Amino acid sequence: MELSSPRFKSLAVTAGLSFWFLIITFSLNIFHLEYFAIFVISILLITQIFSVKLSKALDVFAIFNTKVFLGLFFLSLVSIYGITFRFLKVDLLRIRKQPNSYWLKMQHLEEHRIFKQY
């Protein structure tokens, strides 16, 4: 972001702020399309007008927003995988046997049925 133009930083910050506006208003169940449009247009105009003077602040906010967003994204992704694997009774490390698992039971396979070995 340090090498980007101030106008591009302004667009990135506007996108980040509008994303957080959407998340907060949806979670509080007070979202209105008119308020969202007014918010985005006003933030875009303010950051575009003062983009050269706010260049350092826009850079700091864009980096902070990216770290928070990616952190929450990866945390939720790992949580969803963990919940899914727990629900399906999948043991990734195969430490213990679990009933009704989706893993293949290799001891029940017969070697004469295997045609190719890689």
Q: For the record, give the distance between the C-alpha atoms at the N and C termini, rounded to a whole number.
A: 46 Å
Number of helices: 3
Uncertain residue ranges: none
Helical proportion, percent range: 55-70%
Name the structural class: mainly alpha
Q: Number of domains in the coordinates? A: 1
Number of DSSP strand runs? 0
The largest sheet, given as strand count, sense and whether it forms a barrel, is: none
Radius of gyration: 25 Å
**H and E order:** HHH
Instruction: Estimate the global geometry from the Cα principal axes.
Output: elongated
Q: Which strand-content bin applies to the residues?
A: under 5%
Roughly what is the average pLDDT, rounded to an integer? 81
Overview of the structural elements:
The chain has 118 residues and is mainly α. The chain has one domain (6-108). 61% of the residues lie in helices and 0% in strands. It contains three helices and no strands. It has helices at residues 6-27, 33-49, 55-87. The radius of gyration is 25 Å and the shape is elongated.
Compact description:
The protein is mostly helical.
Write the layout of secondary structure elements.
Layout: H1 6-27, H2 33-49, H3 55-87
Helix pairs in contact: 1-2, 1-3
Question: Which terms would index this structure?
Answer:
118 residues, mainly alpha, 3 helices
